[in-house]
Amino acid sequence: MTSLLIRNARPMGAAPADILIRDGRIAAIGPDLQAEGVAEEQAGGRIAIPGLVDTHTHVDKGLIGYPWYVNEVGPRLIDKIDNERRVKRELGLDPHVQSMRHVLQCLGYGTTLVRTHVDIDTDQGLAALEGVVETRHALAGQVEIEIVAFPQSGLLRRPGTVELVDAAMSAGADLVGGLDPCGMDRDPKGHLDAIFAIAEKHGKGIDIHLHEGGEMGAFSMDLIFERIRAHDMRGKVAVSHAFCLGMPDWNASQALIDQCAELDVPILTTAPPSREVPALKRLHAAGVRFGAGVDGFRDTWGPYGNGDMLERAMLLGMRNNLRRDDEVAMALDVCTTGGARAMDRADHALVPGGRGDVVLAEGESLADAVVSHAPRALVVTAGRVVARNGASLTVAP
Amino acid sequence: MTSLLIRNARPMGAAPADILIRDGRIAAIGPDLQAEGVAEEQAGGRIAIPGLVDTHTHVDKGLIGYPWYVNEVGPRLIDKIDNERRVKRELGLDPHVQSMRHVLQCLGYGTTLVRTHVDIDTDQGLAALEGVVETRHALAGQVEIEIVAFPQSGLLRRPGTVELVDAAMSAGADLVGGLDPCGMDRDPKGHLDAIFAIAEKHGKGIDIHLHEGGEMGAFSMDLIFERIRAHDMRGKVAVSHAFCLGMPDWNASQALIDQCAELDVPILTTAPPSREVPALKRLHAAGVRFGAGVDGFRDTWGPYGNGDMLERAMLLGMRNNLRRDDEVAMALDVCTTGGARAMDRADHALVPGGRGDVVLAEGESLADAVVSHAPRALVVTAGRVVARNGASLTVAP
């Protein structure tokens, strides 16, 4: 928890001002602030935004530092999953090293709060979790990492996984994960009952990957809603991707969105251009908490992405056809303050009293900063300078 | 028409080789080429690709060099069109200066062949065309510019525009443009009859903007097909955007695609993430020529884009869910050789005999070059070095 005075920044693209951070929190924003004995940084008129918030990524299994992975994987989800397990084994991928590389690259882009899904399976047991927990310790004070115990290879189809996810919750995981209850485990009741039981036992929340589209996704959402009610878990269950909320049948999708609002189910998107997605303005109108993430990158799933949440804000804006400056600002909010709110952090904002995470971005305007997403000049976490000129000060292993 | 020997490049990401350009054409690709008296460039192992091809942009009305345009425009197409005409008038935008800035920025990214739609309307008459024709002369030998006379404000709704488009065809335009025959002019027969009459009179081709989706777009496509048959214009009429080819009804959209193949109608996309779009593999399978473009950028329409066709290849890949390396290469092909073919250039390829347009891109692999789209080290047009390190050698006004 440090103090810092950032001179001559443009908070959210507004007129130049100084930003004073005291003991890790924003103490004041205004012209010509004075603070004896506090270190200073010159923003040079750059735009100041809150720390970027990545609500959906996979830090444990990217291939940063390895040669380019030539993707020749088959078209089905299970092809990608089986291929990934094999590649990880063959390369002897070290989850701690890879997650350090991943998180530090993202920190260079200004991401100071991350929710990551970490693979739990019968091949590697809790090794990925342990590696990411080690990374979380190593980078404490620079970036906050929330861990979801994620049964990437299925929960029921590979016996022993339920027990491993249960064990993960005592070994440092913050939330229970799940994956396509119909499509993956072919047993939606069994899958969801198992997840909710583990969450209830440990008093933790849930974040479920739901790629299932249309009516199948709607069915899985319905089963999730039933269990939120039964387990009294309002506000504790998030759904990632949730493509079914973008299904064309307005009545069907609106019924789901209304229940997300009623049961306070945060929706976390990666805004893929190739899929139906939950629409930003529609979720806003319904009052549903909404975050965004870069998903995996530089991995065996596909070539796109680099960890930059400003690029993701651009993609989110493009996916939602947000063209006006005030609309692009909405996309950026989802990638900062709004995403933090979806992760139950109410204080992640560039306002007095807010957490002292500040990113200096290039651009004439806030929208320009999003569209250009040039390397960040400075990244500050709770008053501490953690990255300069696009690179973290801590060097990745 | 110059000669140049590029040493130690990786053509299309393959093993290192030299590339010899003689008199503007690729003479040889191979190891340790010898060429007395020919200038040399060191590629340093970078990936060599053909010149990028932008088949759909608007060079005459971007705001490069002006302060950031704060977009507060209304949601309808006509809001954007009327707003743009007003802004151009108020700023006194110089189409020659703006098109120089636009094209040179794109050239810095490696675009050596461009098709641009240039506004023809009763406000500015042929001024935009004249400015772009001047730019075409000024940049001859560096970038090839094909001009579409584009009735952006409608052809029939503003009397006098038909005559202006007709005049444009004698003043340097290469193709007749059109725009949403139903949605814009509210008179599809009148709009299309007028366009085809001008094209026939001047013996030129056509490139129509068709944003109309679903059944309305299918109707307009049908009217276009009828006139291609009636005027015997197979291979001479391209359709830009063509969102209706992405309509969910497979039978309806396939019937349109099959006719595009039969009548050799090139489809030119900007791959917007927010709209239904023609699918790359589907058009390939049908044998339809397919190009891509950056559309307008840094203008009054929206904030996205910068003119980089490698970024566009990434967006095209993401929009089409192309994840395998061989699939990403397909997206890049649409942005180079395939796009050129859609513009009737059969010789735009990195092969002996091909046009000597070469771009050096950063990356471990071809897919990496697309996804990273880092600044280009070198751009060569017909053997002449025209850009280095992301910037054109000719300085924009």
UniProtKB/TrEMBL annotation, chains A, B:
It holds the Pfam family Amidohydro_3. InterPro entries: Amidohydro_3, Metal-dep_hydrolase_composite, Metal_Hydrolase, Metallo-hydrolase_Enzymes. GO terms for molecular function: hydrolase activity, acting on carbon-nitrogen (but not peptide) bonds, in cyclic amidines. Residues 147-387 form the Amidohydrolase domain. Coiled coil: none annotated. This is Cytosine deaminase. It comes from Haematobacter genomosp. 1. The lineage of its organism: Bacteria, Pseudomonadati, Pseudomonadota, Alphaproteobacteria, Rhodobacterales.
